[in-house]
Amino acid sequence: MRTLTGRLVAATIVVALASVLVTGVAMLGLFRQGVEQAAGTALGRDADTVAATLEDRQLRRNGTPTGLAALQRRLSQRRGITLAWAGADGAVPGGAPPAPVTAADLADARSAGTLSERRTVGDTSWLFEGRPSGDGVVVLAQPLADARADVAPPRWRLVVPLLLGLAGGALAGLLLARQLTRPLAALAAAARRLTAGQRDVRVPPEGPLEVVDVAQALGGLASALAGSEDRQRRFLLDVSHELRTPLTAVSGYAEALADGVVTGADVVPAAEVIRDEAARLRRRVEDLLALARMEADDFRVVVAPADLAALVRAAGRAWQPKADSAGVPLSVEAPDAPVVVHTDAERVRQAVDALADNALRVLPAGAPLVFACRPAPGGGAVVEVRDGGPGLAPEDLPVAFERGRLTERYRGDRPVGSGLGLALVGELARRLGGHAEARQPAEGGVAFAVVLPGGDAAAGNPNTARTLPEPHGHPRVPR
């Protein structure tokens, strides 16, 4: 009874038993009624037979059929039937009919041409059947209990169908329990495999709709766990790969300084290497954490009206000193009128900074760098970073924002980074409700653009938070 199968079988047996009892009670009444009707019909046939027999024996002696007493004895001994006869003049042999038949019964049978009734005499219920016989009349009387015994079928013929119904109910409960418990057992086994670390767990959708829903939910959980663990593995691989080189440089120069190998005028260059490699480490960690947060479900985008033209101009001012130190002419192309969209300005600026850092890493001195912003056809806006650097091959433009693709492609040909910056930009654009694209610009290098939709498309993201506009209606501009 502690198992689902036992409970279902017990429940169906109880239901079947209740149905059998109700059916048995109803059938018992119908059975009794049918038996009484059959008993009356059988006694009526006996009355017809006796009437015909007596009519054939018209050899009368004093107006009485011959063999009447012998026939009455046989009927009484075999089946407890009482026979009464009256002649044409109403005369009854012996002067009075044998009990429980009365002279009134004979008179009723003669006047109506037949008699068929049930009557209680004393403590006994009797069946009466009367028929005309030649010029006379015949009435047969039989106790109801004897009449039922003559025609009633064996009890087992009534009990067996009920027992079969009870057995059928139990079998149906067992089959139903197996139909339910088999997929549930498969789900439990799949959950145990999932707990043990197996992630390719799939359960065939079978059984009732609710069980199918649980199986599909379990499959979705397995896929979600596999995706989460895959992100964790990639994050750890990225961390180990991206931090190994700068950590080697930092630890090497630090040991050299600590051991006194680097002294005098070489100390400052060594410290600068340590500082630069530490900055690289910090940037790698920030990129890795940013990508990890974006791939997680708790990454949030705060939507508010933002002037992207002002954002691009602010980014140009922030990057101008670094561009000057690299000998790269930096220009900004943005309309004087505000270009306002509902988006997260901090995330847009994060994308612009990543693209600028990526460009300055590969640009030679004198190659142009352009920050641009313009309204997009049909609404929205485009924020773009263009350069006159070495550019990309046409076949690399569609995969430019895939993690590590360009790093592997151009390693050894030009200065390359970790490949995380462009992947970060692509994921940011997607989270903002838009997309990132790469193309070949007039400057000759490559143009990376973040295309943002108009309206409030980013708010459709379930991880998006809403904020109110800035005071006095001014769109917010980061930094």
Describe this structure in words.
The chain is an alpha+beta fold and 479 residues long. The protein has 3 domains: 4-157, PAS domain (Beta-Lactamase, 2-Layer Sandwich), CATH 3.30.450; 200-297, Signal transduction histidine kinase, dimerisation/phosphotransfer (DHp) domain (Helix Hairpins, Orthogonal Bundle), CATH 1.10.287; 300-473, Histidine kinase-like ATPase, C-terminal domain (Heat Shock Protein 90, 2-Layer Sandwich). Helices cover 54% and strands 16% of the residues. It contains 11 helices and 14 strands. The protein has a 5-stranded mixed beta sheet with strand order 8-10-11-13-12. It has a 4-stranded antiparallel beta sheet with strand order 3-6-5-4. The radius of gyration is 53 Å and the shape is rod-shaped. Residues 462-474 have low confidence and may be disordered.
